[in-house]
DNA sequence: CGCCTTTGTCCCATATTATCGAACAGATTG
DNA sequence: CAATCTGTTCGATAATATGGGACAAAGGCG
């Protein structure tokens, strides 16, 4: 049940703990981080200087900040993903057509990871929720995640469901395994998944999987504030999403399996 | 003169070397990486498993790939930058108005680092060069870099120029310090910098600095293929760029020093 | 103006720990 | 079915990250 939480190389784990801490604070010095992580100053200092030398951190006036290097590494790895190469433009135009905040999502280690998110901002209220929207969450907690999960091989589904214990994020999160499995059947049937605010209260969305005979490449999603989304769910929005997902799938298949 | 190339913590340097190698290959196994880096298999394997456990790498079928975590870390650190918060929309609309490939660039450790790049693609030819455009390069090798460099404090300018030895990237790269210094005077005078293909042959661009009384926040740039850019440089493009930069600066100043 | 705190940085002995070679198992290929 | 590939595991050794303490400098406060 309990995963191997033993990380082989400790310095690296420590290094990323510092990065995480630095990420929350935006900018910090060695002492501040050492206190927060209850580590010796000198150790933290060593790590900071190491990361700075490698170009991942920038130091300004004794204080340290995350550099652009992480962004560049991340963007480069994203750009090589086939689903992104074939889906990027489609997601962007989906955002324009639907007027919603749209995402391109992939599965990663049992989590749904957003690798593209559009900037379409209808109103200020949505903007706030949009910025708060997490870039990574368990598959079962959101529409694109459920859309992907529903089309994974059965053994992987059970594996993922078993490992995570279906803890609730909001009052609407699916916490019962039977409910989840029956919902996935529905998703496979109708071709799209719905999130009624199961990850973030009030954030309602629709998502369709990008799936070929071989595997699931990811999912396309459109999100919005609950009040204005509820009626959209009964109209053309689901069709729009599934069309976009189909376009991307067709584009991938046409380009060849590679 | 020679910088401290001694990296305190060796495992971390090694870890990022593996990440770099993995970045180039997109996907690779332990043996392949071990051969490329001339390291023992087991060491590389340890690093891979460590990074995978931390969520930065994903393993699929024994092979490893960079995960979306780097992207998320990078995006989050970017989103907290004031120049990005105030400049994001302006750069995007600049791309629409000008019809060019536009960038928002900051200085980082003597380099120009692109933290936003638009997706406006006039033609296929530009798309290719656009994708090849590096996200990080020495300040003196490109328009936004020179625009930033020109407005840094004098001591930092000499410090940066001294450290880098002005090696040529193309035939047009500025390699003489006096030339560079006189060009920077021109840039300060006319308010914008020009790149006639000094970093990538044929990639011509204009850039204007986002500068307040206190400091340089970065630069806005517009790039295009050489043939179609040369005439644009004599027309309204430079004005468009400087206006955008001024808009962003005004937005930052208005929001307060914070 | 000077004290006192707090910062970042440096040093070095010690023991933690990352390393690395070899061996194992599974898959793939000839 | 043998021969290579792969990824993985194990364990002893030596390398090395650690962390306590000391230093200088900057900042705050009386």
From TrEMBL, chains A, B:
Gene3D superfamilies, sorted: 3.30.450.40, Winged helix-like DNA-binding domain superfamily/Winged helix DNA-binding domain (1.10.10.10)
Any one GO BP annotation for this protein: negative regulation of DNA-templated transcription
Entry keyword set: DNA-binding, Transcription, Transcription regulation
The keyword Transcription appears for this protein: yes
Domain IclR-ED: residue ranges: 69-254
InterPro entries given in the database record: ArsR-like_HTH (IPR011991), GAF-like_dom_sf (IPR029016), HTH_MetabolicPath_Reg (IPR050707), Tscrpt_reg_IclR_C (IPR014757), Tscrpt_reg_IclR_N (IPR005471), WH-like_DNA-bd_sf (IPR036388), WH_DNA-bd_sf (IPR036390)
Occurrences of domain HTH iclR-type (ranges): 9-68
A GO molecular-function descriptor: DNA-binding transcription factor activity
Superkingdom, natural source: Archaea
Keyword Transcription regulation among UniProt keywords: yes
The name this protein goes by in its record: IclR family transcriptional regulator
